[in-house]
Amino acid sequence: MKLLKSGDRSISQTMKGCLGSVAIAATAFTLSSCGDKKKEADAGGDKGSAGKSLVITAIPDEKVSDQDEKFKALQEYLKTELEIDAEFSISADYSAAVERFKNGEVHLVWFGGLTGVQARKAVPGSRAIAQGDVDPKYKSYFIAHKSTGLTKSDEFPAAIKDMTFTFGSKSSTSGRLMPTYFIMQETSVTPDEFFTNPVQFQATGGHDATARAVAGGSVQVGALSYKKYDSMIADGEIKAEDAPIIWETPYYADYNLTGHPALEEMFGEGFIDKLQKVLVGCTDKDVLKAFNRDNLISAKNEEFEGIYEVAKEVGLMR
What is the pTM of this model? Predict the structure, then answer.
């Protein structure tokens, strides 16, 4: 798999073996805005859907207590645009979001790259239908506590070898999978072999927990989503001088909204296409705030095959 370098530099990092490319292009549909209430009469709609509800969930890559409020606008948007019932249901952790999707308990999930691949491989007919405009070219930050004296460099920070290090969730793409892959690419060994001290994981709280652990000095170095770090700095939740960025990974594909095939049975043939259109066509900032994105663009399963190959390479998927 080929992965793009950070910044605007050219393609770099080739995995051993013949791997698929992480696609970085997605073509946005020309669609109606959130305010356009026009309905397509021939697309299945709510015929026979009385008493059925589209259940939304998301991987808890931040404080779970914040999610319910953030997803209210999305629920109302889908209810209005699609004339269906929609509700948000919190998932306790990354694995729970995948398992609930596999069991058909939830039908539209904001997944990371890895959890999305895990879910779609387990549920034939499921589809990645939307992603943030930044998600085809996502990246991770490595950050360090100010006491380490480390500063930002284009070179992998080999000095972290003897420092305490934490990933986020074990199932996080930007907080575990891709940092693991790039550590292996840079050092030729696994993180467990590279670091002198045992590698840590954040059991709860996702990327914000990693940022706070490093900024607070309970761990010296951590890897996390660049979007979450940037938003925490912007909101004053942590200070950049307490946990400066020391390295940025190359790009890879990450977050996505995935639809369950049961939606076609619940709301009629063609419903997932309708769902995709209203998601990609949304311009309501309150709705988009749930994803910490400015825009949504279309997505398809093939764009995340590179993530699947990386997960197999590092031993997180068969």
Answer: 0.82
